[in-house]
Amino acid sequence: MSDMRDAILQMSEEKHISQDMVLETIKEFVKAAYKRKFGTDENVEISFSEDLSKMTVCARKIVVAEENYYNEVTEIPIDEAHELADNVEIGDSLMIPLDPQTFDRGAVQSAKQRAQQSFKDMQNNYTYSEFKNKEGEVIQCYVNSVNQSGDYHLNVGGGVEGILPVRNQSPRESFTTGESVKCYLEKVENPSQGRGGFRGRNKNDVRIILSRTSPELVRKFLELQVPEIYDHQIDIVKIVRQPGIRTKIAVKSNVHDLDPVGATVGLKGNRIQTIMTELDGEKIDVIQYDENPLVFISNALTPATVSKVLPIDLATKHAIAIVEDNQVGIAIGLSGVNVKLANQLCDWMIEVKTQAQFEEMEISQEARDKAEAIFAQGDEAFMQEDENKETHLTAQELGISEDETLFSDLSISRELVKKLEYHDVYTAEEFFDLTPEEVNAIGLTDEEKAEIASVIDVEEEQEEQFECPNCGTVLPAGTTHCPNCGVEFEFE
Questions:
Q1: Is the pTM of this model over 0.70?
Q2: Do residues 427 and 400 make contact, with C-beta atoms less than 8 angstroms apart?
Q3: What is the pLDDT at residue 376?
Q4: Residue 176's closest CA among 148, 200, 143?
Q5: Is the pLDDT of residue 30 over 90?
Q6: CA–CA distance, 143 with 49 (Å, rounded to integer)
């Protein structure tokens, strides 16, 4: 088997490029060298033998009479043509074999660089297409090396290299060359996109960003280990992580009588233990989700035992978890990790206190009695309290100028006021400043827009007119004298 055939097959296999594309690229490479030498590539023809063992390069020239011979690149005199072939006549085309090795060295080198870049672009396109489809998946990688910044370069398959940046590494993990690592494929970037981020060894390489810290890595492990999660009998509500230290997972069941925590943890903890091993011993808490935030908060502080949870401020989602003295450290966790993750999981600000510490807090007796009463009345009372509570904040509390008009002071429905305030729009002036896109994002109906417009129009009319203090005539704002009684006005 010839060296050329070996090279073509090897390049096709290693670069994941079809043989036809390899051959076309070689042809383009030769044509570029020919053009560099002769100034045109319109009359060059390149072909390969059927077994790819031989490449033929020919220049197509027109046979002309001696006296009409002007262009040595595209023409050949009749006398020279007779030396190469019999029975040729003026006007015939003659294929003249060429030796590419006779081409100018600079031309060959330039064409070679272009061909190499073409191969590189084709390989990048293949790599990008293949791995872009794997974004969001867990892939098996092998450690190639680690650079001075601490970023790991990993073989993600087919000789393609991905990067595990320091920011995506668990602090408890380190790897050795050749070690097998399962990583979450976070992002694939094409160099042609011109975006920043972590780059490969070559700035023109496709960038494959891997992660060992993403909560999605844990989700994928759970889907593999827990069939009930994969089949959607159990839903993962939320995952929060302090990589290398602790992960909390909130789960709920879609099937009656199926314990979501027990199924996720597995018999004797075997399922969750397998995932902990994958994460090099990172602790994992599986928590029963509950729509009642008080119950959910209590569950989220596991492994601590919580005596009760008291809501302090429903508007700011502030609650206090009461625990026994020997449970404080467990509830808070090392460096506060446990309560921090519970905060993130429940989206509440949770304070951990003993009963004695709670009694010493500067909370009004009324607020304390109310919190105790809510807890004593049960979950339904809390939920009803949360639904019925209307918080009326003043302009000063909202940090709004007294000159601005609060929607809560205008005659529009409470539901519409709540809807606007949910999107941080408290005043008519703030509404005026919204772009059409921002107004659409609020999701106002045509009726609600009309309701706002009618109230603001009235307000504008009131602001643009005033009465003459002498005769009571209604005048436009800015009038300097009353045309009815002649009184002059001076505005401050």
A1: no
A2: yes
A3: 54
A4: 143
A5: no
A6: 42
Q: Which of 75-79, 277-281, 415-419 has the highest mean pLDDT?
A: 277-281
pLDDT of residue 265: 95
Q: In what order do the strands lie in the sheet with 349-353?
A: 306-313, 318-323, 349-353
Residue 444 CB neighbours (<10 A): 18
Side-chain half-sphere CA neighbours of 260 within 13 A: 24
- Each residue's pLDDT tens digit, 47-61: 888 887 788 888 899
- Coil vs helix vs strand at 255: coil
Neighbours of 188 (CB within 10 A): 19
Comparing CA positions, the residue from 476, 477, 437, 429 lying closest to residue 456 is 429
At 329 the pLDDT is 93
To which H or E segment does residue 21 belong?
A: helix 19-38
Number of residues that this document lists for the chain:
492
Residue reference for tokens 């959910």? 296
Element (H, E) at 180: strand 180-189
CA distance 130 to 145: 23
Amino acid at 492: E
- Which phi and psi angles does 167 have, rounded to 5°? -65, -20
Per-residue pLDDT of 292-342, as tens digits, reads 999 999 999 999 999 999 988 888 889 999 999 999 999 999 989 999 999
pLDDT at residue 2 in the model: 60
> Can you tell me the distance from the alpha carbon of 452 to that of 454, in angstroms, rounded to the nearest whole number?
6
Q: What is the CA radius of gyration of the chain?
A: 38
Return the number of other C-beta atoms located less than 10 Å from residue 31's C-beta. Answer: 18
Surface-to-core class of residue 275, CB atoms within 10 Å of its CB (0-12 exposed, 13-18 middle, 19+ buried): buried
Compute the distance between CA of residue 172 and CA of residue 25 in angstroms, rounded to an integer. Answer: 48
